[in-house]
Amino acid sequence: MKKLFLALPLALGLSGASADELQTRVEQMMLDSFKANGIAGLDRQKQDAVQKACSGLTPPDAETMKKLEAAEMATIKWPTDGNFTGGDWKEGQKIAASGRGLTWTDKTADNNGGGCYNCHAMDPKEVSEGTIGPSLEGYGKLRGSSEEVVKYTWGKLWNSKAYNACSDMPRNGYGGILTETQIRHVMAYLFDPASPVNQ
Amino acid sequence: MRRQLLFTALGAAIALTSPLAGAAGDELNFDAYREMLADGNPAELLEMEGEELWRTARGPKNATLEQCDLGRGPGVVEGAAAQLPRYFADTDKVQDLESRLMHCMEAQQGIPSAEIINGQFLKGERGKLAALVAYVVTHSKGKPIAIDLSHPRVKEMYDMGERAFRYRTGAMDFACSSCHSQDGKRIRATQLPNITKPEGAAEGWSSWPAYRVSNSQFWTMQHRLWDCFRQQRTAEPVFASDVTIALSVFMAGKGNGAEARWPGVKR
User: Fold this and answer.
1) B contacts of A168 (beta carbons < 8 Å)
2) Domain that holds residue A184
3) CA distance B220 to A131
4) Could you give the C-alpha distances from B130 to B36, B61, B122, B138, B162, in angstroms and in order?
5) Do B159 and B259 sit in the same domain of this protein?
6) Domain end: B77, B111, B138, which one?
7) Which CATH number does the domain housing residue B113 bear?
8) Shortest Cα distance from B191 to chain A (angstroms)?
9) Residues of chain A positioned with their CB less than 8 A from the CB of B235
10) How many domains, chain A?
11) Fewer CB within 10 Å, N side or C side of chain B?
12) Does residue A94 contact residue A193 with C-beta atoms inside 8 Å?
């Protein structure tokens, strides 16, 4: 009973604002509370389909997830010459370690890091590694380098949302975070038997 | 002189207790030297500067801030920060400590809010505002966080903050929740509080503003949120804008009842 009395003024205060109305106001707030600065323009405040669907308290239903994933899958650019892993693991290591790029203090939108270590363990000797994503230690050694594994990894790096629409991982290729060449270097870092990841 | 001595001592302390030296697992946390610094937080220097600013007649109106109402009556600083953000009838807004101080500076001293909103952190009037923050929060140290969520306007901001917290956007699809909705996670070596739970929300809210050892700077909550958004790769949040207030109400409200530890010490 007491709960009812408490809830009443809240409902009145929202002047009957429904969940949809609240959502509309939040979307407006996410635009109005920001300003463009350098390469970080206001276009960043507008959500695309995946961002919008994955901002709720619960993920979308299975059917919606599948539809979103199919659309994201179609954005993946596969290497035209079949060269998935022929990059330089040393370059890949630098890209994995760098968390720089695309903030409003960065001058240009290229030369970004991949920020892999922010969330993943990779080289077993590196201690300063994040834990939001799964450990990738021994990636190539443990998974081998079958066509299936290699293709999946390329796709996941290019657009993680193709495999899980609400993945926490950025869409590196699709989002223009990393170039195709950089992704190939990261692939080498994951698969090359000489890479520290596989030691 | 005192400032220089303090910083030198601090540097020595850090050299001796670097948390990354041979770090693994639990040793990656910062608690040990946070505790060590608790009695000599360099934010105290700023707190003194803030107290001075509170009592000094300044601005076009040549007035002090001693009649500023932070929610507990004109001039009452004791316990005020622990109850902010709150709704203020005179502005018809929910305000956090920083937006309220900014209002007082304009209303009583004639210092235009635009100067602070368009300014930069650590500089000019926004820098002075940070000193005032250091002064005010110190007078809530040890007090329980008490946000009045029964007020409809505050609750409305809480609901908007909860949605803003999960609002994925920007160049990397991040929301606050990308990093702050699971227990025991880290970005590199930095521990991340789970802000979707009361304990984590309290940890986040009650430990900022804080003195940052890594760059010898005092950062307010507005400053901290601004840098969160920078790392999220969004556009730049406007100082004291609705999203910053909504997120503050969400965090503070969820952390209600926890003890304020202001000002904190952070890496």
Assistant:
1) 174, 178
2) 89-198
3) 27
4) 24, 21, 7, 12, 26
5) yes
6) B138
7) 1.10.760.10
8) 9
9) 34-37, 40-42, 44-45, 104
10) 1
11) N
12) no
How many CB atoms neighbour CB B5 within 10 A?
9
- How far apart (Å, rounded) are the C-alpha atoms in residues B210 and B221? 8
Length, in residues, of chain B: 267
- Please report the pLDDT score of residue A66 as a whole number: 98
One domain for residues B231 and B117: no
Can you tell me the distance from the alpha carbon of B172 to that of A80, in angstroms, rounded to the nearest whole number? 26
Q: Which among A33, A56, A117 has the least Cβ separation from residue B242?
A: A33
Whether B257 is covered by a domain: the verdict is yes
The verdict on B132 and B158 lying in the same domain is: no
Domain interval for residue B165? 152-266
- Joined together, the tokens standing for residue B75 give 């001039």
pLDDT means over runs of 10, chain B (267 residues): 43 39 44 66 91 98 98 98 98 98 98 98 98 97 97 98 98 97 95 97 93 92 97 98 98 97 87
Q: What Cα–Cα distance (Å) separates residue B60 from each residue in B56, B64, B199, B228?
A: 13, 11, 44, 35
CA distance A64 to B259: 43
Instruction: Check if the beta carbon of residue A47 is closer than 8 Å to that of residue B163.
Output: no
The reply to whether B69 and B112 lie within a common domain is: yes
- Domain-embedded: residue B80: yes
| Contact criterion met (CB < 8 Å) for B235 and A40 | yes
Number of domains chain B is built from: 2
